[in-house]
Structure to design on (472 residues):
């Protein structure tokens, strides 16, 4: 089912344009200072008023209404104060999940199977099982555990019990109970800020400084030349160069590599793209080396690139072994399909809550709305419309819009400026004309709007960009 304007159906009173009441934001600054006495608010851009936020617009305490193309770092799927999700939040199922939050591993509710089935209705192709977590970083760390358990179980025989030596040594954090194993990830990747996910992350030093790290390998992710259609041969050679690095690491690394972790599009690291051939190459390498492939869809998943899961465009054969999710799904965890990825004994992948049925219920509701209105396809249509306008701007202002990327990836679009200083000024100037927009890597701008961002919103964004860029 496709509706001409889903946003109008959801949000009949959505603002028609941004409102800039104050560029100095005195109330936000005062609120951030006050909050900072008890909570680390140093990363706050402004203090939002979510009660007044509507659809694609976020309000702040100074009376500003920003067109939001950052959407809580890519995590708002259906707009602010979406009425369908508000109704779901009032349901008996949701109230039970919030008030009596079940310890799902020991005491699952009678409605948990239904909750899981609703989430699986929008699972990636080839995946029919899931494990629930609390955040994107948590989802990746849970996936690491599953990979390591699987890898060791394959060595000893899936249903075999542990040796006494393993049982004794693990209590001393020693091998063989605590084996030396690795997850291979990529330079410029971002997978979270916890301990193991921090070891896999390689985008900015601030994400992991002072944390003890696992000594895990980093391969190079393709760095393409743009426009893609003019650099096909060079980019093909770049794919092969990076795949050879992965092959070499599997042969040379000091400990066995049990899994490869990769984003379909590197997001925090700069919106870096790679081809279906590159990803199939990774899939082949993992199969050849007895390792698992983890596809990190935390930021790219849930319709953001014009399909439900970005890696589905690559038609990988066979599908990835695990697919992690969070962000726009408002829940977290990983999908999988091989029964042997399930740890061979209970209480191995486990904690008190084993996720959160309230967030899982919300994820199921989000998936239902996306399917109802075919919002992934709609995002692709809007993205095509927006990309053409941005391409025209990039030709007019090439100094400030370099390496425009994300064609045919819905609104998952980015570009680079000449420096980080220029990028930060652009973000600030856009805010002053009523657009909340985000950056990535050192010098790039990324668009991460909701799935109900439409052509009328794209026109407002481009008009604001023209106003800012023409002033430089």
């Amino acid at each position: 089912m496709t509706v001409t304007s889903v946003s109008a159906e959801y949000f009949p009173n959505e603002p028609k344009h941004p409102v800039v009441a104050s560029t100095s934001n005195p109330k936000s600054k005062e609120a951030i200072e006050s909050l900072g006495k008890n909570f680390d608010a140093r990363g706050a851009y402004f203090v939002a008023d979510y009660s007044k936020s509507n659809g694609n617009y976020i309000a702040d305490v100074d009376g500003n209404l920003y067109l939001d193309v950052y959407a809580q770092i890519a995590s708002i799927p259906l707009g602010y104060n979406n009425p369908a999700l508000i109704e779901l939040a009032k349901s008996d199922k949701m109230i039970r999940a919030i008030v009596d939050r079940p310890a799902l591993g020991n005491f699952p509710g009678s409605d948990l199977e239904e909750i899981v089935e609703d989430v699986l209705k929008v699972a990636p192709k080839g995946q029919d099982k899931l494990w629930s977590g609390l955040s994107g970083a948590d989802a990746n760390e849970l996936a690491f555990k599953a990979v390591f358990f699987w890898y060791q179980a394959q060595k000893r025989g899936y249903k075999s019990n542990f040796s006494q030596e393993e049982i004794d040594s693990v209590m001393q954090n020693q091998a063989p109970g605590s084996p030396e194993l690795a997850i291979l990830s990529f330079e410029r990747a971002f997978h979270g800020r916890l301990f193991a996910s921090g070891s896999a992350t390689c985008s900015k030093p601030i994400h992991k400084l002072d944390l003890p790290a696992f000594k895990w390998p980093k391969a190079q992710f393709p760095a393409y030349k743009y426009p893609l259609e003019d650099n096909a041969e060079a980019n093909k050679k770049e794919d092969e160069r990076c795949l050879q690095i992965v092959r070499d690491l599997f042969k040379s690394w000091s400990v066995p590599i049990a899994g490869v972790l990769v984003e379909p599009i590197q997001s925090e690291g700069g919106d870096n793209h790679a081809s279906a051939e590159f990803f199939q190459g990774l899939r082949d390498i993992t199969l050849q080396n007895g390792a698992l492939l983890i596809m990190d869809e935390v930021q790219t998943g849930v319709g953001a690139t014009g399909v439900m899961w970005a890696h589905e465009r690559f038609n990988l054969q066979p599908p990835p072994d695990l697919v992690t999710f969070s962000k726009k799904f408002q829940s977290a965890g990983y999908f999988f399909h091989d029964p042997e990825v399930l740890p061979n004994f209970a209480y191995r992948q486990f904690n008190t809550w084993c996720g959160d049925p309230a967030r899982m219920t919300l994820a199921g509701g989000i998936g239902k709305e996306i399917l109802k209105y075919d919002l992934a396809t709609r995002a692709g249509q809007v993205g095509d419309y927006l990309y053409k306008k941005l391409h025209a701007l990039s030709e007019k202002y090439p100094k400030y819009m370099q390496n425009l990327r994300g064609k045919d990836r819905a609104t998952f679009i980015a570009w680079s400026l000449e420096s980080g200083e220029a990028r930060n000024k652009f973000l600030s100037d856009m805010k002053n004309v009523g657009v909340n927009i985000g950056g990535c890597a050192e010098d790039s701008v990324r668009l991460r709007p909701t799935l109900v961002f439409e052509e009328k919103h794209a026109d407002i964004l481009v008009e604001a960009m023209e106003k800012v860029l023409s002033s430089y």
